[in-house]
Amino acid sequence: MQPRDRSTDDGELLADAGPFRTLFERSPEGMMLVDPHDPVVVGPIIACNESAAAMNGYTREELLGKPISLLTRDPESHQELKTFVDELRSMGVIAEEDIHYRKDGTPFHIEYSTVLITIGDREFMLGIDRDITRRKVLEDALAHQATHDYLTGLPNRALLRSSLGDRIDRDGQVAVLFIDLDGFKEVNDTFGHHVGDDLLRAVASRFAGALGHVGTIYRLGGDEFAVILPETDEEHAERVASALTASLREPFIIGGHALRAGASIGCAVHPKHGKDASGLMRRADMAMYSAKATRCSYTIFEQAMEQRRAARARRSDARPVAIADG
After folding, report:
1. pTM recorded for the entire structure
2. What would the pLDDT profile of 235-269 be if each residue is shown by its tens digit?
3. Could you write out the DSSP letters of every residue in 106-128?
């Protein structure tokens, strides 16, 4: 059994629809009528306005009689469509986001609302579609900005914390490296922040090249970076730290200047050095400052570091506070 020709259905169907026809035809939003009860075609498009046709890259004639799945690339069965109609009767309206595909195959985001309406003695689904691709692009850009460093494009501290927590839950043994560049302040003070920014981008590129696929590099801010190494023990973490410092040996040629940058790296490994992301990051930070103080390229966290920090804090708290006379 073949579906009947619907090439004139929309004109005939809406001929006596009065104000609804005017709204349907002139709406800047895409509007379609779909027959949910057709026994042959699953959800054929019975009528559509010019806005809907143009949005999807078709002419109205090309869409009439075609299943709505032509636009979604998600074929439905009659039973699935019946279930959707039952939900519509129960809820009154269904409003969601979806992806449509234009005639040339280009995907785009839509926001749609669907209701059931009756014209004459026939029941249809009325869909109202809006192209929200620009909004989704903006939302994606804002989401990226919230989790990535604007200067280097690397993931930032916020994403480091969440990613490290996920890795701990998933992989168990995870290492995190905290990296502080040596001599960066002097570059900024001598050549200006624009050269310093270029140096940070160049360092980020070298770190990414040295890491390859074994880990992920993050920028924490200023001249500090971090690395997550999944499924890693102390020995492997030390090898990676050595590779990162080695990547900085050659000078950076920036603005006609040959600039050098070193790095102090601290490492902490889960579960030995911390049970959660916050504890692991704190101890990697302690190890980094220990490396910087002792002029080591990299240092693995040791419990003695935390004990020394606690002792310093107690000594600071014990010092008398001078109170100036008014």
Report:
1. 0.70
2. 999 999 999 999 999 999 998 999 999 999 999 99
3. -EEEEEEEEEEEEETTEEEEEEE
